[in-house]
Write a structure and sequence with these properties.
Strand content: 5-15%
Helix content: 25-40%
Number of domains: 1
Strand order of the largest sheet: 3-2-1-4-5
Structural class: alpha/beta
Order of helices and strands: EEEHEHHHHEHHHH
Length: about 280
């Protein structure tokens, strides 16, 4: 079954501390060819909670495919646990609930999980030992690397500007709240109707739009519009956004095409165990 959606939303995410985050960008488009539009934040700069509220409003209006650029769960299959040696749930939805319960950080933040509650599992620098000992990946990430997609980040790496660790665990708190109303693939089966949340990787969209490996960021109107044209989208005519906004715009246009590809909804290596514990990045086959 290939689901049908009326709209497509791509969210470039942030796990930064605080209540407002310049790193969050939300782009939305409808079926057809119109260029995705950036959605302005209610108060000028997005909070994570505002994104959750916006998602629930839009999901109720029309069948919408929402894509978030963070890891929906830590690796599980390779080691048989998310945080080996610690008593935590063993399936993703229960783990999201656990993360939400133990994190008192504002705006769905999760820094306290990394920095306090489960500190020994995360790499913050040389004092923690060999970085290689923390570089565990999900089955999807290992598969993506094996087919030449590139080496992905791991949710156990807590250093660097991208902060994939904080972004992902903050995202898991959001998933816990929105899943009550909107299913999350592949932890939930594809719905016959209605909206759906998936994990995305903006670099996959950029590569599909013709951007070369290692140069997926678009920082000028020519690069952005060339990418949109390659995806069969109309051009972006508004002010050039920052790289977060450009990523979201191109990814929303890519999602509009990708959602119609049956193979992307049935990856060969996606087993029931992986679907239950780790999930899968939409677009990886």
């Amino acid at each position: 079954m290939t689901p049908r959606f009326a709209r497509f939303a791509a969210i470039d995410w942030s796990g930064a501390k605080g209540a407002r985050h310049k790193g969050i960008a939300v782009a939305l488009c409808e079926a057809g060819e119109a260029a995705p539009q950036l959605i302005p934040a209610p108060d000028g700069i997005w909070s994570r909670q505002a994104v959750a509220d916006w998602l629930l409003d839009k999901a109720a209006e029309a069948p919408t495919l929402f894509g978030f650029d963070f890891s929906f769960a830590p690796p599980f299959v390779a080691r048989g646990a998310y945080l080996p040696g610690d008593a935590v749930p063993e399936d993703a939805p229960a783990f999201w609930a656990y993360v939400d319960t133990i994190c008192a950080d504002i705006d769905l933040g999760a820094a306290s999980l990394l920095e306090v509650a489960h500190r020994r599992h995360f790499y913050f620098g040389k004092a923690d030992g060999e970085k290689a000992d923390f570089m565990h990946n999900r089955a999807c990430e290992a598969h993506y690397n094996a087919v030449g997609g590139g080496k992905p980040s791991t949710v156990y790496d807590a250093i660097g500007a991208a902060q994939v660790a904080k972004a992902s665990f903050a995202g898991m708190r959001l998933l816990h709240h929105v899943r009550r109303h909107v299913p999350v693939w592949p932890f939930d089966p594809l719905p016959s109707a209605g909206s759906l949340v998936v994990e995305i990787y903006t670099s996959i969209a950029a590569r599909a739009a013709g951007r070369p490996k290692g140069r997926t960021k678009m920082r000028d109107p020519v690069a952005l519009n060339d990418a949109l044209t390659n995806l069969g989208s109309e051009r972006h005519v508004d002010t050039m956004p920052d790289d977060h906004g450009a990523d979201a715009i191109v990814t929303a246009a890519w999602m509009r095409n990708a959602a119609l590809c049956p193979d992307l909804w049935a990856p060969t290596d996606l087993t029931p165990q992986i679907a239950r514990t780790e999930g899968w990045t939409f677009g990886v086959i």
